[in-house]
Amino acid sequence: MESLVFDWDFSNLSKLANRDIQPEEAEQVISNRPVDLRSELRNGEERIAQLGETNGGRVLIVVSTTLANGKIRVVTSWPANERLRRYFTSLKRSGNVGRIEDQDLRE
Question: How many domains does the chain have?
């Protein structure tokens, strides 16, 4: 599996810090089979809002874009509200989204 490369600078790091979210958490959401909520063309770039979980189980919304060089730039992120957390949990039970635990892997 190809590893994802992220683009970070002061602007996007400070947006996450203001919401008490670590950059690693946003990266984990994108890597842990998130749910695409919507896609929007903004300022000439496609931004995708995704709902997913961190390795610690925190459910977040992450908005990102893929740059011309292939790097993923997280634009912003925030904690999911209760309704979206319940929605994500229901989808996760079906096994189609979320991080895969070791016990979920079949040999």
Answer: 1
